[in-house]
Design a protein that fits this description.
By secondary structure, this protein is α+β, with helices and mostly antiparallel strands. The protein contains 9 helices and 19 strands. Helix content is 26%, strand content 32%. Bound molecules: adenosine-5'-triphosphate (ATP). The site of adenosine-5'-triphosphate has 12 residues, from helix 1.
């Protein structure tokens, strides 16, 4: 069975500091949720509180609307997969995977039968008798996952599960994680500091900073319209600019007539995606601003241009590879940058 998780004013205080500060969020059952944020923002502490490995200082944790805040990890219906996999080195794969059933008193025959099923599920059946030291990083991860799944959890909690793998394997394994989650229909909550990983996997991403939630939504919704300057900077691909100096002419402009809060106030920040800025106008209604090129970087399908406005604000944009002309665009040259007014994102918080 799959489970929903709800955090209600959930708080963790260490040494009088709230490292998780009264957060409220609901993760729907059967969804793939990624907890995303920079190092030290409180993601692992949040995950450990959901798992029951860390006591909650204040607030509650609900699993399928049942308050599990004071229950032990085994009473909750969650299973955790650790960053270093935490496999027992002296046990073979079959014993590692069946360990959770052994401590629950399940007979050897039954637990081996179920462990073999789990090993087949993660494509590791032929490695049942091997020890962790004889496995690759990706194989160890599959065993750790099988071990987490064997107790039929409602929610699977994964703490940086891909961080020990090389970049190629990381991409391979993240596909496998997603496929498995979809096949089993379980709720997965996955901690990562990688925006790329979260965006590739998540139905719902939760962006955290300094113990608080900055934004919750689908990766696409977050990328389309980041709520705060922090989110825009952290997810990348966005310019955070001020409607002052070189962009003073934008202040007090209504940037999106369909929205009430879309007046661009003087001196306040806004964001515009790097891929929405061009070096050629697409319409005579485009915003236009003069900039100096600081550097250009070839990134296969496009060039990344780093520029500076006359007032010193930095701005980046992508130039399609086929239209990049090194004689016109190189460091030290001046050019005009354009973007449609409706592409301006005003921050909600
Ligand atoms: N046992 C502890 N005692 C005191 N402070 C702690 C303890 N565990 C974590 N912290 C602090 O709580 C804050 C949040 O830590 P946490 O591990 O949740 O962050 P994180 O976002 O998962 O970071 P990372 O990506 O580096 O693992 C950090 O400032 C950390 O130093």
């Amino acid at each position: 069975m799959s489970g929903s998780i709800e955090l209600v004013q959930t708080t963790k205080v260490y040494d009088q500091v709230s490292v998780v500060d009264a957060i409220n969020v609901k993760v729907e059952k059967g969804s793939y949720c990624c907890l995303l944020g920079p190092s030290g923002c409180g993601k692992s502490t949040t995950l450990r509180m959901i798992a029951g490995h860390e006591a909650v200082t204040e607030g509650d944790i609900l699993l399928n609307d049942r308050n599990v805040t004071r229950l032990t990890p085994r009473q909750r219906g969650t299973a955790m997969m650790f960053q270093d996999y935490a496999l027992f080195p002296h046990m073979n794969c079959l014993d590692n995977v069946s360990y959770g059933l052994k401590v629950s008193g399940v007979s050897k025959l039954v637990r081996y039968e179920q462990a073999n099923e789990m090993l087949s599920l993660v494509n590791m059946a032929e490695h049942a008798n091997k020890f962790p030291g004889q496995l690759s990083g990706g194989q160890q991860q599959r065993i750790a996952l099988a071990r987490a799944l064997i107790c039929k959890p409602d929610v699977v909690l994964l703490d940086e599960p891909l961080s020990a793998l090389d970049p190629f394997l990381r991409i391979q394994m993240r596909k496998e994680l997603k496929q498995l989650q979809q096949k089993l229909g379980l709720t997965f909550i996955h901690v990562t500091h990688s925006q790329e990983e979260a965006f590739a996997l998540a139905d719902q991403a939760i962006v955290m900073s300094r113990g608080k939630i900055e934004q919750v939504g689908s990766p696409r919704a977050i990328f389309e319209s980041p709520n705060t300057p922090f989110v825009a900077n952290f997810i990348g691909g966005h310019n955070v600019l001020k409607a002052s100096g070189s962009l003073e002419f934008l202040s007090n402009r209504v940037v999106n007539p369909d929205s009430d809060d879309a007046l661009l106030e003087a001196n306040l920040s806004f964001s515009v995606r790097a891929d929405h800025i061009t070096t050629q106008p697409r319409s005579d209604k485009d915003i236009v601003v003069k900039a100096d090129v600081i550097s250009t970087e070839f990134q296969a399908q496009f060039y990344l241009l780093e520029c500076v406005l006359e007032d010193g604000q930095s701005i980046t944009c992508y130039q399609p590879e086929e239209s990049f002309d090194v004689h016109l665009i190189s460091s030290g040259k001046s050019l005009y940058l354009y973007w449609p007014q409706e592409r301006i994102n005003t921050f909600r918080c």
